Amino acid sequence: MFRILEKNDLAAKVYRYIIEAPDVARKAKAGQFVILRLYDDGERIPITLADWNVAKGTITLYVQAIGKTTIMMSMMKAGDVLADVVGPLGIPSHIEKGKTLVALGGGFGIAAIHPIVRAHKLIGNKTISIIGARTKGLMLMENEMRAISDDVRIATDDGSYGTKGFVTTVLKSMLENREPMDVVLAIGPVVMMKAVADLTRSYGVQTLVSLNPIMMDGTGMCGACRVVVGDKLQFACVDGPEFDAHQVDFELLMARQKMYSPQEKISLELFNKICATQEQRETAVW
């Protein structure tokens, strides 16, 4: 049974869940993810593990309500039960001692970089975190990132906090100033990860991205999460989710991410139309 033990509203349409999943917590490693379903016939959605507690048998997930399933999940409360949580899935992050890590989290991606930065910090690596949001009020996990980072740099689109601009604005300044860095990790919107890869390529800095394409079974059988990396077909669920950013075909990835946009739009419109009231939306199972 995968019971929601705690749910917190963090920002506009962003929620933090602590879920009872002792088997997942016991095996979880930095960089891995889970696939969950709200109900038996529901959509399977991949969510990166933001944290876990082995002693308590819990995992922490951050979910943004943008499609039908995530909007339905945003209506769930502490005490509600998910149909299943499968994981941990994917290859854990490769953490090598003696490195300086620069990790970029764009908006929702901050939750995904958190356990990876922590793993680097635990083995003594220097950790620099660059976190960004559209505005100060939407910044996620600043305190958590400060607790595991030697240096935290902040960017907001509107300049309300930290550097005005994107996380790539901060990274560009660091590269131009030749600040020491061995590995750059970027997790966030695909366009952001592509921009990071374009920035670091000419500097020859190893750059990793964590890809979260369309997924179904999480075992490599369905092929839905296929990506092209260095002219080689890979499956993000079993070969990733981390890949060499300089080898990823981002144009193909962005095109594939939009494949089911019309169907997703219809599904959400039907949900909103049929479930006209809040009570109907909270109890809908279809």
Q: Could you explain how this protein is built, in words?
A:
With 286 residues, the chain is of the alpha/beta class. Among the domains are: 2-90, Elongation Factor Tu (Ef-tu), domain 3 (Beta Barrel); 93-193, 3-Layer(aba) Sandwich (Rossmann fold). It is built from ten helices and 17 strands. It has a seven-stranded mixed beta sheet, sandwiched between helices. A five-stranded antiparallel beta sheet has the order 5-6-2-1-7. The radius of gyration is 19 Å and the shape is globular. The model has no long low-confidence stretch (mean pLDDT 88).
Q: Distance between termini?
A: 20 Å
The total count of helices amounts to 10
> What is the rounded Rg?
19 Å
Could you name the ranges where pLDDT drops below 50 across 5 or more consecutive residues?
none
Strand order of the largest sheet: 12-11-10-9-13-14-17
Query: Briefly, what CATH class of one domain?
Result: Alpha Beta
CATH homologous superfamily descriptor of one domain: Nucleotide-binding domain of ferredoxin-NADP reductase (FNR) module
What general form does the structure show? Answer: globular
Number of strands: 17
- Class based on secondary structure composition and strand pairing: alpha/beta
Shape-level CATH architecture of one domain? 3-Layer(aba) Sandwich
CATH topology of one domain: Rossmann fold
Mean pLDDT: 88
Order of helices and strands: EEHEEEEHEEEHEHEEHEHEEEHEHHH
Largest sheet: 7 strands, mixed
